[in-house]
Automatic annotation (TrEMBL):
Domain spans labelled Protein kinase: 251-532
Protein name: Fibroblast growth factor receptor 4-like
Keywords: ATP-binding, Disulfide bond, EGF-like domain, Kinase, Membrane, Nucleotide-binding, Repeat, Signal, Transferase, Transmembrane, Transmembrane helix, Tyrosine-protein kinase
PROSITE patterns xrefs: EGF_1, EGF_2, EGF_3, PROTEIN_KINASE_ATP, PROTEIN_KINASE_DOM
Disulfide bonds: C116-C125
GO biological process: one example: cell surface receptor protein tyrosine kinase signaling pathway
Record-listed ATP binding positions: K282
Gene3D superfamilies: Tie2 ligand-binding domain superfamily, Transferase(Phosphotransferase) domain 1
Compartmental location: Membrane
Pfam families linked to this entry: EGF_laminin, PK_Tyr_Ser-Thr
Matching PANTHER family: RET ONCOGENE, ISOFORM A, TYROSINE-PROTEIN KINASE RECEPTOR
Domain EGF-like: 91-126
Length: 543
């Protein structure tokens, strides 16, 4: 028998062309399975008995319509119908690129090309008009004479003595009498004096103490945050950035107290309307987009935590934010200064102390961090890097969770492992990470509980480096293999059975079966009561 390759007639499909094509709006129907190939402007698929190509894309700005994905926006536009133009400072496909235009130039949302403002030229508009030219596109010629300098923006002349006049072409008149000059100097002096008093009053009232970043900058950062963390972006109230802005000249940096891959932490003095205070100033180098995002993510989380603080939770176990500096080239997050430093260093320093009840009092820090996790849980924020190195001890001996930027710091070579899995961050704190975070990049409050279990282990070992299967250094694949075999950190020497049991529950494969931070707090408090000498607990209750 000879088979002739022949398609079904219009409107039919199937092996025997016995089925009716249900695609709408002029779509062609696949000869075998009936799938619709939509004409431009229509989308939709055949699902069970529901017709395909029956939804109009309604895309704007020349966007094409993909029958599965809907509108595919051209560069410069975003949104489900491509109705929104890229926010100021961003451009390109999906508005993913940053403009590099300077000196007030606008930037094309399509290709990022800079449209220089008056007086500037060059690719980034970074060059002032060459000598003798000024204005838009440096097209106008200066009229300044006698070696006067010409303003690149408006062409105004700054004369050299003895020349004067609009174009510096008139000789200055000698003063006929000293009296009028003296008079004008006196009145000028009193004006300056008056202005200084007004400025001082405004400063005292805090009106001049900080100038907020402009709304455009805030909008741009929000747009970035929305792409990373929708919940976080939504929890921020308008003006969130400006409310925390401090002036760089009010900060006096002091000694270095910590260093990370993205910047440094310095002890510093901050001038405030209430007087000078000591702060920890965390600087970031924000020249690349990753560190720029890290800076604003950490700033946004801290602002979000602080704006939600209310009378129910007056004492927070999250490091206190005191201000932000975003308007200078070096960006700063200003935090409360924790004189005892980080918990890991603290644990290692007290290794030789053999004091009754020491372990019980260390569990107090674990209780503090369990409370910090509860705060984050209420805000639906995952910290992603809960570890002793990211806990600070305050002057009042309270442990507070810090470092919300997933900053890869001095531990890069030992604690953070370079990861080549697509879609995951370059450096990951593998030995603190929950199995699902390693395998799928999923971070939740329950994955923070896994890391909290490792933090308990660090406390119980006085700051040892976590060791799996006899190894302190594991690759990504080795780590997954070890955990998948059910292997976990072993019980530290002298660790109470109940505490190790709590750690093991934090390391359950199934996130939902791990203890909640509330439950962990409860159990740690109970353990602490059993371990601390009775008089210490009584002392605490009195305090
Ligand atoms: P980070 O980049 O936030 O992990 O900070 C690096 C190191 O700087 C920490 O491990 C601490 O030793 C120190 N550090 C950070 N913040 C503070 C602070 N608020 N008070 C005192 N030391 C700090």
């Amino acid at each position: 028998m000879q088979v002739k390759p022949m398609g079904c007639p219009d409107g039919k499909y199937g092996l025997r062309c016995h089925k009716d094509c249900i695609c709408k709006n002029g779509a062609r129907c696949h000869g075998l399975n009936g799938a619709c190939k939509c004409p431009p402007g229509w989308k939709g698929v055949v699902y069970k008995k529901v017709a395909g190509c029956d939804e109009m894309c309604d895309c704007l700005h020349g966007a094409s319509c993909d029958r599965w994905a809907g509108c595919v926006c051209p560069p410069g536009w975003t949104g489900p119908r491509c109705q929104t133009q890229c926010p100021p400072g961003m451009y390109g496909k999906d508005c993913e690129k940053y403009c590099i235009c300077e000196n007030g130039a606008s930037c094309s949302p399509i290709d990022g090309r800079c449209n220089c403002s008056s007086g500037w030229y060059g690719k980034n508009c970074s060059k002032p008009c060459p000598n003798g030219r000024f204005g838009q596109h440096c097209q106008r010629g200066c009229t300044c004479k006698n070696r006067a300098t010409c303003d690149n923006v408006d062409g105004s002349c700054t004369c050299v003595t003895p020349w004067t006049g609009l174009n510096c072409d008139q000789l200055q008149q000698a003063t006929s009498s000293d009296e009028p000059l003296l008079e004008s100097l006196v009145s000028l002096g009193s004006l300056v004096f008056l202005a200084a008093i007004v400025m001082a009053i405004l400063y005292k009232m805090g009106i001049l103490a900080c100038s907020a970043p402009d709304a455009g900058e805030e909008e741009k950062i929000l747009f970035e945050l929305k792409k990373m963390e929708q919940d976080l972006a939504q929890s921020l109230q308008p003006g969130w950035l400006g409310r925390w802005e401090k002036k760089i000249r009010h900060l006096t940096p002091g000694p270095l107290i910590g260093e990370g891959m993205f910047g440094q932490v310095r002890k510093a003095r901050l001038r405030t309307p209430e007087g000078e205070i000591t702060v920890a100033a965390k600087t970031f180098r924000v020249e690349d987009s990753q560190s720029y995002r890290n800076f604003y993510r950490e700033a946004a989380i801290l602002v979000s935590v602080h704006q939600q603080r209310n009378d129910d939770y007056p004492e927070s176990n999250i490091v206190r934010l005191l201000g932000l500096i975003t308007k200078s080239p070096a960006k700063y997050i200003l935090l409360e200064y924790a004189p005892k430093g980080d918990l890991l260093g603290f644990l290692r320093r007290i290794r030789d102390i053999n004091e009754e009840g020491l372990f019980g009092s260390l569990l107090g820090y674990a209780v503090d961090i369990a409370r910090a996790l509860q705060e984050l849980g209420r805000l639906r924020i995952a910290h992603r890097d809960v570890a002793a190195r990211n806990v600070l001890i305050t002057a009042d001996d309270v442990a507070k969770l810090a470092d919300f930027g997933l900053a890869r710091d001095v531990y890069v070579t030992t604690q953070y492992v370079r990861c080549t899995q697509p879609g995951l961050d370059d450096f990951l704190p593998l030995k603190w990470m929950a199995l699902e975070s390693i395998e799928t990049g999923e971070y939740t409050c329950q994955s923070d509980v896994w890391s909290f279990g490792v933090l308990l282990w660090e406390i119980a070992t006085l700051g040892q480096d976590p060791c799996y299967d006899g190894r302190t250094q594991l690759t990504f694949l080795q780590m997954v293999g070890v955990l998948r075999q059910g292997k976990r950190l072993t019980k530290p020497e002298g660790c109470p059975e109940d505490l190790y049991q709590l750690m093991k529950e934090c390391w359950c494969d199934v996130p939902a079966t791990r203890p909640t931070p509330e439950e962990a707090e409860e159990r740690l408090l109970q353990l602490r009561r059993e371990l601390l000498p009775r008089d210490a607990i009584e002392m605490e209750t009195v305090v």
